[in-house]
Each structure stands twice: as C-alpha cells, then as structure tokens.
Design goal:
Endonuclease III, domain 1; alpha+beta; single chain; DNA-binding; globular; two-stranded antiparallel ribbon; about 270 residues; 3 domains; 7 strands; 14 helices; about 50% helix
DNA sequence: TACCAGGACGTGC
DNA sequence: GCACGTCATGGT
C-alpha cells in the first residue's frame, strides 16, 4: 500500500538523517527505511511524500503521521530563539519517529562516545549476522535481531562487529532483557522510565533519554550530548557544565515539547544553519 | 599526532 | 554524593 502526506511537514531526508534512526539507505528517488523486522520505501516529489510498504498501520505510527506538525513548527518558532527558528523553518518536515523499544536500547548503547557513520556500520553488521534475511521491493535486507538472538551471540560477536568496549554492555543487557523482558518499563512516566533504563549496563542519562524519546515516545525528554552542550554554550549563553543540569535547564524551558525542540536544535546545528 | 564522535563505568575520595 | 581516568574504533 501507499501512504501520501503533505511534503512540507514530511521531509524524508530530514526525518531520517537527523540522528534518530540508524537503519536507512538511498533507494531510487528516496530511501529505504527499516524498523524491527519491517521495511518501507519513502520518497517525495516536493509536494507530497509517499510511504510504500506492506504494513500501513505500522508505518503510519512509525512516522508519527497522526500528529499535526504545523503546530509543532509554530510552537518552536514561538520561542524566538534564532537557531531554533531557523531550524524549524528549514526543517519543518522533520518528524519524530516512533521506533521499536528494544532496537532503540541496543542501538543507543552502541551510540555512546561514537559517531553516526560508524554506529550505522556496526548496527548493519549486527543485523547481517543475527537478523533474518528478507526482501522488500527487490532489495535484500536483514531484520533487527531479536533480544533472544542477541543474548545468545556472546560478547565476542559484538567485538567482531566493531562495537569496541561496548561489547560487554550489549551482551549483559541482552541477556538480562532475554531473561526479564521489558514489560516492567511500560506504564512508567518519563522520569521513572529514565531511571529504570539507567539500570541497564551501558545506559546512562543521555542514552536513556534517547531510548525514552525515540522508543517510548516520551516527548518530554531532552538528550544532552556533545552537540547540545555546544548549542547550550554558543546559542543560549549558558554557563553550566554538568550535563544533568543542562538537561534540567532545557526541560524547564521546553517542558512537554522538549523532544521536538531538541531535534530541531541538534539537526540544525549539525547542518550549520 | 592528538582530538573528536548523539558517554558510561569503576575507582577513590 | 562528586571528580577523574579509562574504555575500542575510525575519521580528521
């Protein structure tokens, strides 16, 4: 099936390239995007953006299409913060994704002290090694591995995939989730969820915020990484150095809209807007 | 060569 | 509780 949507508020590149997802690749006029075991083809003609897939309900939710981003953009511009206004205007088609919880946990453990191209390569190799081979629109791809498969792989597998010192974190966390499941994480409010996530090996404050934001749709999260630190100093004139306090500062400023604002700022800064 | 990348852990105080 | 050194890897 094919979903059609106003391109002004759904820009494939901005949505996929802003750092929230690590599994996508150029394809024809747009991109193939992968989530869990599923795949879709997303492309735009400038007026409309199209999503072609086998599971419309899944990707309607995945791309957050029930939400009116014209309001999000106006909300962001309402703060009259130069970088934020430039970002919201230039990236009005950036949408926050609703992704798979466990995929986000493992992906963002890999992301710590790492760069995005390398993160994508590592995740790609892990999928190729432990995922299930499938085909979509004539292209072969691998699903994201189940926790059970990850738990049985052993730390050596992650080491060979290029994870570096994070190999033991992945191994330990996968084994724990394989044993316990993540049902206990459901129904928690954002701060309780963050604390619970930080109980997994390899998950600190920033990684927990990313998992909550992209995996659990907790938009009142504000991940603080090196780029946000730079933005805090250069664009907000801040003097704090503790990342937890910087996080609290932004949460106080943007509240329930923190996640959207954070992505505009992060991506806008990376694009040097 | 030293520094950076969507940081977190373990130790010592 | 807080500061600090350390942790692989690949790119500049």
């Amino acid at each position: 099936m094919v979903i059609s949507y106003d391109a002004k508020y759904f820009h494939p590149l901005h949505t996929l390239d802003c750092g929230q997802i690590f599994r996508f690749e150029p394809f024809k006029e747009g991109f193939l995007a992968f989530s869990g075991v599923k795949a879709c083809y997303v492309h735009s003609d400038g007026a409309k953006t199209f999503v072609e897939c086998d599971d419309g309900d899944y990707f309607y939710n995945f791309f957050d299409l029930a939400r009116d981003y014209s309001k999000i953009v106006e909300m962001a511009k309402g703060y009259s913060i130069p970088l934020l206004t430039r970002s919201a205007e230039s990236c009005s088609g950036l949408r926050l994704l609703n992704q798979q919880k466990e995929e986000m946990i493992y992906s963002f453990i890999i992301s710590q002290n790492n760069n995005i191209p390398r993160i994508k390569g590592i995740i790609s190799r892990i999928c190729a090694g432990l995922g299930e081979k499938r085909e979509f629109m004539g292209v072969e791809y691998y699903t994201f591995p189940s926790t059970h498969a990850l738990a049985g792989a052993g730390a050596e597998f992650f080491k060979r995939a290029g994870c570096g010192y994070r190999d033991k974190f992945l191994d330990e966390t996968a084994k724990r989730i394989d044993k316990e499941g993540i049902g206990n994480l459901e129904k928690l409010n954002t701060s309780a969820l963050k604390q619970a996530l930080m109980g997994y090996k390899g998950v600190g404050a920033k990684v927990a915020d990313c998992i909550a934001l992209f995996g659990f749709s907790k938009r009142d999260s504000f991940p603080v990484d090196t780029w946000i630190e730079k933005i805090y100093k250069e664009d907000f004139g801040g003097a704090l150095t503790d990342r937890n306090k910087i996080c609290d500062y932004f949460l106080g400023l943007f509240g329930e809209n923190s996640g959207y604002i954070q992505q505009y700022l992060f991506y806008g800064k990376r694009l040097n807007l």
